[in-house]
Amino acid sequence: MINHEQLTSGSSTLDLRIASTPARPIGAHTLILVHGLPRATGMGRQAAGLLPELAEHLASESGWLVATGTLSGVGSSTGTFSASQWLRDLAAIVDRVHEEDSRLSLAGFGFGGALALALAASDERIKGVATFATPAHLEPWCGDLHEFRQALVGAGVVGDESELLPAEELHNDVLSINPLGSVAQLPPRRLLIGHGSDDVEVPASDARDLLEAAEGRGELRIIQGAGHQLRADPRMVATLLGWLDRHR
Question: Is the predicted pLDDT of residue 244 greater than 60, yes or no?
Fold first, then answer.
């Protein structure tokens, strides 16, 4: 079962879906799925397209409450991308689904994993983070700052191009997210780092760098033959389900 609602985050209205199952209720456990940042033309509408289905599957198999929201500018959510705004969006989702005495974890894909680590570094309510295909080094991941901005315009994660930050300001705002510094603050809370061995967008060495920054206090899963898009990979799903099951 999945419920659909809207959530306000600053001037943005976010789409939020919350999946649950009556078959194996574990009310004190909640997972939030965080989508990545699309840069391919027209992908802003589809960036989180598979996550509601994944949320239902994870809820059914684990008994956890599983939420997923589309952040500003993605899907049918209003607003425009900035790293700072997306961090506020994710904080608003956490505020909405967190209940006192509940155990809350985040699972982020790509840049969404970097956001999850950043929020967890400052929010002790978050008891665990799983990242998949997440860059440890955002400057090379961004590439040329003007091309980066233009890619986001093409992807359609803007309400209006005039609302998108200028190239240098946008680049600096993204670099304010510090995955290595954030992951270092996560232990002793739970950490899972998943990555495809054949990821051409984010090298698998970034996963190892994240684990090293956490002083090895986490689980590393390199999925052989997998590329960057892990959301629909059954091995990723099995890895995440196993992680959830070990931390009831």
Answer: yes
Q: Quick one: pLDDT at residue 101?
A: 67
Q: Which residue has the tokens 């960057």?
A: 228
The model's confidence at residue 76, banded by pLDDT at 50, 70 and 90, is: confident
Q: Domain residues for 104?
A: 2-245
Number of domains in the chain: 1
pLDDT, average across residues 166-192: 97
Q: Catalogue the long-range contacts made by 1-10 (C-beta closer than 8 Å, 24 or more residues apart).
A: 1/56, 2/52, 2/55, 2/56, 2/59, 7/69, 7/92, 7/93, 7/96, 8/92, 9/72, 9/79, 9/85, 9/88, 9/89, 9/92, 10/79, 10/85, 10/88
83-97 vs 111-122: helix crossing angle, rounded to 10:
60
pTM of the model: 0.94
Residue 226 banded pLDDT, cuts 50, 70, 90: confident
Which of 149, 176, 135 lies closest to 80, judged by CA? 149
CATH code assigned at 238: 3.40.50.1820
